[in-house]
Design goal:
Elements lengths: L1 H19 L5 H11 L7 H9 L7 H13 L4 E3 L7 E3 L6 E5 L5 E4 L7 H4 L14 E4 L4
Parallel strand pairs: 3-5
Antiparallel strand pairs: 1-2, 3-4
Helix pairs in contact: 1-2, 2-3, 2-4, 3-4
The structure holds zinc ion.
The site of zinc ion has 6 residues, from loops.
Length: 142
């Protein structure tokens, strides 16, 4: 199971990087595979620790550079919540983020099936939403 997931992340990483026209390096592959295996919207420091576990020579600066390059290429999302450190999201499907006020846990939240942003928000007439980038705050049951 773990091998299948790792293999899936590896091929997804290669495909994403190719599609974005970004040159694949060993470091970028390692960082991207690490974030693709993460569902907790990690910070750069968290990704550095996780990537270092299987690529001991990688530096925090390299991880930051890889994340910046991949975010600029649209391979991952770079998130900023209030004054906290930047976090990163590999989910490229339309979604918003739900931030737990008590423990800073972040969940991906999709619109209910069949709804689009124009159905949910009172937008100016004629607005066409091209991307969702919102953060909801609350207390998420554990
Ligand atoms: Zn997300």
């Amino acid at each position: 199971m773990a091998n299948s997931k790792t293999s899936s992340n590896r091929s997804m990483a290669t495909s994403l990087v190719r599609k974005a026209g970004v040159r694949m390096t060993q470091q970028r592959r390692a960082v991207l595979e690490t974030i693709l295996a993460s569902t907790d919207h990690p910070t750069a420091a968290m990704l550095y620790e996780r990537t270092k576990a299987h690529m001991p020579g990688i530096s925090l600066a390299t991880v930051y550079n890889c994340l910046e390059t991949m975010a600029e290429a649209g391979i991952i999302n770079h998130l900023n919540f209030d004054n906290g450190p930047s976090r990163f999201c590999p989910n490229l499907e339309p979604h918003v983020h739900l931030l737990d006020d008590t423990n800073n846990r972040v969940l991906d939240v999709q619109l209910k099936p069949g709804l689009c942003p124009e159905d949910v928000f009172d937008l100016p007439e004629g607005t066409c939403v091209t991307r969702m980038d919102a953060c909801l705050h609350g207390n998420i049951p554990v």
